[in-house]
Each structure stands twice: as structure tokens, then as C-alpha cells.
UniProtKB/TrEMBL annotation:
Annotated source species: Thalassobacillus devorans
Top-rank taxon, per record: Bacteria
Annotated 4Fe-4S Mo/W bis-MGD-type domain residues: 8-64
Residue stretches spanning the membrane: none
Lineage: Bacteria, Bacillati, Bacillota, Bacilli, Bacillales
Family the UniProt entry places it in: In the C-terminal section; belongs to the prokaryotic molybdopterin-containing oxidoreductase family.
Keywords attached to this entry: 2Fe-2S, 4Fe-4S, Iron, Iron-sulfur, Metal-binding, Molybdenum, Oxidoreductase, Repeat
Entire-sequence positions represented here: 253 to 940 of 984
Cofactor or coenzyme needed: [2Fe-2S] cluster; [4Fe-4S] cluster; Mo-bis(molybdopterin guanine dinucleotide)
Name this protein carries in UniProt: Formate dehydrogenase
């Protein structure tokens, strides 16, 4: 019995399933994951976890994990040794760069992988290849929120901590299915609501769990959040309810902004959003009366053609009412992936070096050129959306994507995979042979989080360490090692022996992380950026002022143009989002038996009214057709949706994948696909 006990190991790790960033010890025996054990000192979650964090680990040992590197030979893959795969990748990169130049190559980092791995992906792209064509999937979700905050307050992250959300007098959630997408954070809100009288107002198309609990639930028409936000802000100003002292001391651009609000009358807002004026006036009064307001939002805001502007409108409202800089206040874009914050923070973006310094800034570029010993590209690179377009135009010839199933998660699957088919060379680095990997020339087997060291950054800007609990399965390697092998084969030997050295380098170059060190992140310790040279961090941002030269925030005028509507032919609006049990497109959770048993198949939520009108029965099969493509699904009749609103879980894959329906429309400021703006028509496949 003692022998067996000896083999049980406890390792601190951070959950990979959402941006809350729950940390816990994982108990393992050999490769078996026995249980997870959160601790009171787990900074984001205390002793809580949700079903994914608790049971979602089987995928690590899935039989379907890639065993060896694969090289395409005609229409099949052949298993090869690492040397051969890496040499082949380097050879093709070199040839393509020689023939078409460095900008014919594109790189996508993974928001599920570590900060150090994001840092290396952008370093490979910039230093070794010589292009800024590097991006990550924050472009699919939260870039608009980041944009809105950069414009107004200067830092693109949550203003405070989850604790601050819990301390607010009023929490507003907009376009966030918080209970399913950020379960542990939602429980904090539920607790404050139930025990401490916190008010909860929910804005969504769909009456989900949080909406049912809320003190008030508003269902504005799809894509019109900007309108009610601006109208409410205008009304607050018209009534003289704004925070005058805060505006005097901390905010620039008032006059121009005030003027820009002219069109956002209550009549206009009612007409566009469908929310009665009296309710909006009352909402304005409530917001103005509360001392501490925190606003959380997610993809229901960002994945629209006006995603950045709507995020900006949220920040404008918070500024007018003085809801920044104090505990219990602020802006909280809720990050989806475990490390979507960190992946952008550490520079896998076409316009930013690590820590959001522009690649176009000569001084910044010189700093990196000095450290890396090469001239770096001066022009902003292509984001992932532009890269797909460039494949179609024949400008992008090579594509290296790690830890992301681009062929499922990007909008308009047929268009995206059509782009892959035009490439000369494609490398996919992942745990499984994903849909995207099927288009690759080389597939490289990567490690799961439990098999490597590194750091993740959660939605609160909190950097946390994860420690290696298991040896890599089969021949897999951690992403950072693989990228380093590619760089070395291309002639640049970085010589890192541990991710800690990568973080040291990032901290020495990016002021945002100046004081970050593995020592300060030991065990359950964490740091919330910016981390200053002396090692102090900023759990609550903007204490010393906003992140602009004069320390003042900026109000940002916005002009709402009607962007989207259903048509006579495509008369239904398709919404989509997460399920509690599944992670994103489901690549990992579908490999976890415990989870699959709970939620076996995908469905389409249909309102009782629509079901009645079209004669649909529970369990019948329908086909949805948009201008971009079609998807089939099983009918689930529910009052969570109303009228002609339909909802598809985004973990649905195969023929049900929602991205067969999405098209190429994007947020105008960030190129984030307007996933939530799909018009479709419906055909009955099987009545049941
Ligand atoms: Fe925590 Fe999110 Fe993981 Fe659930 S999925 S345990 S809420 S980090």
C-alpha cells in the first residue's frame, strides 16, 4: 500500500477551460488524474471549481492523442521522427520565404497555450522569419473589448479583480452567459446577489440562468446594445446625474462626446432596441444612484459588426458615472479561453510587441532589435482574418497554427478551409488530429497543460504558474520546445532550457511585465499586470491615473449605423454560445467521457412560438441555411429564446457547426467575425 501512496503526486496547475483561471492541485498516479483539489489560497476561485475544471481531464490520456509528428504523403499522413518533421518544416519555410518574402508566411499562437509559448511564436515570426503576420484567437472573441478599453482608459484588461465584481452594488452583465461560460465567477455574483443585496441586471437575447436570477432582465434586439447604452448615458447627463467631480478631475473629451450623444434620444432607443422608454429611464436612474457599478460583458457584445464601438459605449457610461478607480467598480470583459488574455499580452498580435507596444514605434522596435540582434519588420502584419483572405488572394503561402482549430472556430468554414486548400504549406501543432490538421502538410504533437511548465493570465490580468504534473504522452513535446526546435533549424539557437528563461526575457523587454519573475509566482502566488520593476502589481487599475500621458481617460464619441438585420428570405436570427459542460469547439471536452455522458448531442433552441408557426416538434431535425452555408440540428423547444431568435451551442461540431452559417462580416475596428449576426432560413429535415 505504501508503494501505491508514493506514486500519488500533487501538482499545482491552472484550469484550461475558461478565463476565470481557477487554480488547484491535481492529484495524479502515474498518468491517471485522480482528482483536483482547490485551496483557500487559490486566488481566483478559493475552494470552488466547476464541472469542467473538476472532471474535464480525461482528454489528456485520450487514445486519440497524436502519437508522432506526421508528414503528408499524397492523401495520407505518415508518422515520422521529430528530426525529419522539423527539418521539413524549416526547409519549406526557407523556400517559401526565399521565393515570396517573409510576409508570405503567417503564424497563429494558441490562447490555450502558455504566455511563454505566445512569446516564442511572435519571436519566431518577427525575429527568425521577419514578418509581423502573427495573431491569436482573441481576434475571434475579445479584441473589440480590448479596443474599446484602449480608446477610453488605455489598458485593455479587466479594471479590477473578481473580488471587485463581487463588491459592486450593481453588476450589469451584457451579452454574457456567465453561469455557463464563467461558472465560478458567476457563483461569486450569485452569492453577492443572494447574501449581500447586490443588484444584478442582465442584458441578453436569451433567458439563461443568470437572466432568471436577475433583478431585471432586458432583451434588446440583436446588435443594438450600443444604442441603449448611449441613450442611458445621455439621459443621465440630461438629468445632471453624472459624477461631476470625477469628470473634472479624470476625464478628457467631454464636450465633443456630449454633442455626439444628441441622436440617442429615448424615442430612438426604444425604436431600435425594443425596450420601452420608461424602462430605460428607470435603468438610467438605477445606474446613477448606485455607488459602485461593475459591468461584465462577453461575446454577445463583441462578436458583432459594432463590437468595438459597443465596448467603447460601456466604458463611456462607466466614465460618466465615475465608476472606475474604486474597489467594486469598473469594466470587466470576461475572457473566454484560459489564456486569451496572456496570448495577446505576450505579443502574438500583428501590431503589438509583448505588453501592447506598437511594432511601428521606432524606439520600441530598436529595443527588440538590440535584444534579438536583427532588423525587425516595421509594418503592421496581417491579423488572422486578413491571413485567410490573403490565402485566397495567393499572397499567403504558408500557415503555421498551434493549438487552434481554425477550420472550425473561424467564421465561414467553407471560406476558411477553401483558403487552406490554396496554401503551399501548412503546419498544425495540436493534441489531436483536428479538422484543421486534416488540411496540414505537417502535424506536430503538442503537450497538454498538465504536461508542461509555464504561466497563464486569467481574465483579471492575473499571471499564475502551472507546473508539470505528467510526462508528455507518446512523442508529444511542449509548444515552447517545438517552436524553439523550428527556430534552431532555421539557424537561430535560442537555447532556452526552461520556460522561466523565456519569462525573464519577456520581463526584461516589456515594461508591462518588468517585475514578473517565477520566484514571485511560486505555488499559488500570482501577479496582476502591470507588474512594476520593484515587483508590485495592480489588482485595481488606474489608481495613479488612466493609462495615457496626462493620466486622464477619454470619452469616445460613437455613431450607430444600423448594421445588420434579417431579411424577408433569411428571416431568422441565429445566436450561438457556450455550454457549461463543453469548452469552446469541444475538441478537448469531447474527449472527456465524464462530460460527453452529460451532454451527448448538439441541438438548436427554438422558441415555442416559432415551433408552433413552423410545425416543429421536439427532437425533430432541421436544416438552417444562411448565405454562407448550411447546418443541421435537432430541435429543442424552450422559452430561453423568443420569437425568431434561435440558439446553437458553439460546441456543436460536424454538420451542426455554427460556422457553416457565419459569413465574412466583421467588427469594423478589429476584424473580429460577427458570429452573432447570422440571418438564416429553416427547412424541416425530419418532423419526428
Ligand atoms: Fe474555473 Fe473556468 Fe475551469 Fe470552471 S472552467 S474550473 S470556472 S477556470
Amino acid at each position: 500500500a505504501k508503494m501505491r501512496e508514493d506514486r500519488i503526486k500533487k501538482t499545482k496547475t491552472v484550469c484550461t477551460y475558461c478565463g476565470v483561471g481557477c487554480s488547484f492541485d491535481v492529484w495524479t498516479k502515474d498518468r491517471e488524474v485522480l482528482k483536483v483539489e482547490p485551496h483557500a489560497q487559490s486566488p481566483a476561485n478559493g475552494i470552488a471549481t466547476c464541472v469542467k475544471g473538476r472532471f474535464g481531464w480525461d482528454y489528456v490520456n485520450s487514445e486519440k492523442r497524436l502519437r508522432k509528428p506526421l508528414i503528408r504523403r499524397g492523401d495520407h499522413f505518415e508518422e515520422v521522427e521529430w528530426d525529419e518533421a522539423i527539418q521539413y518544416v524549416a526547409k519549406r519555410f526557407t523556400e517559401i520565404k526565399a521565393e515570396y518574402g517573409p510576409d508570405a508566411l503567417g503564424f497563429i499562437a494558441s490562447s490555450k497555450a502558455t504566455n511563454e509559448e505566445s512569446y516564442l511564436m511572435q519571436k519566431l515570426s518577427r525575429q527568425v522569419i521577419g514578418t509581423n503576420n502573427v495573431d491569436n484567437c482573441s481576434r475571434y472573441c475579445q479584441s473589440p473589448a480590448t479596443k474599446g478599453l484602449f480608446r477610453t482608459v488605455g489598458h485593455g484588461g479587466d479594471s479590477g479583480s473578481i473580488d471587485d465584481i463581487a463588491k459592486a452594488d450593481l453588476v450589469m452583465t451584457i451579452g454574457s452567459n456567465t453561469a455557463e461560460s464563467h461558472p465560478v465567477l458567476a457563483s461569486r455574483i450569485k452569492r453577492s446577489h443572494k447574501l449581500f443585496g447586490q443588484k444584478l441586471f442582465v442584458f441578453d437575447l436569451r433567458k439563461h440562468e443568470m437572466a432568471r436570477r436577475a433583478d431585471r432582465f432586458y432583451q434588446p434586439k440583436s446588435g443594438t446594445d450600443l444604442v441603449w447604452l448611449s441613450a442611458v448615458t445621455k439621459y443621465i447627463l440630461d438629468q445632471g446625474w453624472e459624477d461631476k467631480n470625477f469628470l473634472d478631475e479624470w476625464v478628457d473629451g467631454f464636450d465633443e462626446y456630449r454633442q455626439s450623444l444628441e441622436k440617442y434620444t429615448m424615442e430612438y432607443a426604444e425604436e431600435l432596441t425594443g425596450i420601452p422608454q420608461e424602462e430605460l429611464k428607470d435603468l438610467a436612474k438605477e445606474i446613477a444612484e448606485q455607488d459602485k457599478v461593475a459591468i461584465c460583458w462577453a461575446m454577445g457584445v463583441t462578436q458583432h459588426m459594432l463590437g468595438s464601438d459597443t465596448s467603447t459605449a460601456i466604458s463611456n457610461l462607466l466614465l460618466i458615472t465615475g465608476n472606475y478607480r474604486r474597489p467594486g467598480t469598473g469594466a470587466y470583459p470576461l475572457r473566454g479561453h484560459n489564456n486569451v488574455q496572456g496570448c495577446s499580452d505576450f505579443g502574438s498580435m500583428p501590431n503589438y510587441f509583448p505588453g501592447y507596444e506598437f511594432v511601428t514605434d521606432d524606439d520600441v522596435r530598436k529595443r527588440y532589435e538590440k535584444a534579438w540582434g536583427v532588423d525587425l519588420p516595421k509594418e503592421v502584419g496581417m491579423d488572422n482574418h486578413e491571413q485567410i483572405k490573403a490565402m485566397h488572394e495567393g499572397k499567403l503561402k504558408s500557415f503555421y497554427v498551434k493549438g487552434e482549430d481554425t477550420g472550425i472556430v473561424d467564421a465561414n468554414i467553407n471560406y476558411v478551409t477553401g483558403g487552406f486548400e490554396k496554401l503551399d504549406f501548412m503546419v498544425v501543432q495540436d493534441l489531436f488530429l483536428t479538422k484543421t490538421a486534416e488540411y496540414a502538410d505537417v502535424v506536430l504533437p503538442a503537450c497538454a497543460s498538465l504536461e508542461k511548465d509555464g504561466t497563464f493570465t486569467n481574465t483579471e490580468r492575473r499571471i499564475q504558474r502551472l507546473y508539470k504534473a505528467l510526462e508528455p504522452m507518446y512523442d508529444a513535446k511542449p509548444d515552447w520546445e517545438i517552436i524553439q526546435l523550428v527556430a534552431k533549424e532555421l539557424g537561430t539557437d535560442w537555447g532556452y532550457t526552461h520556460p522561466e528563461e523565456i519569462m525573464e526575457e519577456a520581463a526584461s523587454l516589456a515594461p508591462l511585465f518588468a517585475g514578473v519573475s517565477y520566484e514571485k509566482l511560486e505555488g499559488f502566488e500570482s501577479l496582476q499586470w502591470p507588474v512594476h520593476e520593484d515587483g508590485t502589481d495592480e489588482p485595481l487599475l488606474f489608481q495613479e491615473g488612466f493609462n495615457f500621458d496626462n493620466g486622464k481617460a477619454k470619452l469616445y464619441p460613437l455613431d450607430f449605423q444600423i448594421q445588420y438585420d434579417v431579411t424577408e428570405e433569411y428571416d431568422l436570427h441565429i445566436n450561438n454560445g457556450r455550454l457549461l459542460e463543453h469548452f469552446h469547439e469541444g475538441n478537448m471536452t469531447y474527449e472527456s467521457e465524464g462530460i460527453v455522458r452529460r451532454t451527448p448531442s448538439a441541438w438548436v433552441e427554438i422558441s415555442p412560438e416559432l415551433a408552433e408557426e413552423r410545425g416543429l416538434k421536439e427532437g425533430g431535425e432541421i436544416k438552417l441555411i444562411s448565405e454562407a452555408g448550411e447546418a443541421t440540428g435537432i430541435v429543442a423547444i424552450t422559452d430561453r429564446v423568443k420569437g425568431k431568435e434561435l440558439y446553437i451551442p458553439m460546441s456543436a461540431n460536424g454538420k451542426s457547426a455554427v460556422n457553416f452559417l457565419t459569413d465574412n462580416r466583421v467588427d469594423k475596428d478589429t476584424d473580429t467575425p460577427a458570429y452573432k449576426e447570422i440571418a438564416a432560413k429553416l427547412e424541416v429535415v425530419q418532423k419526428k
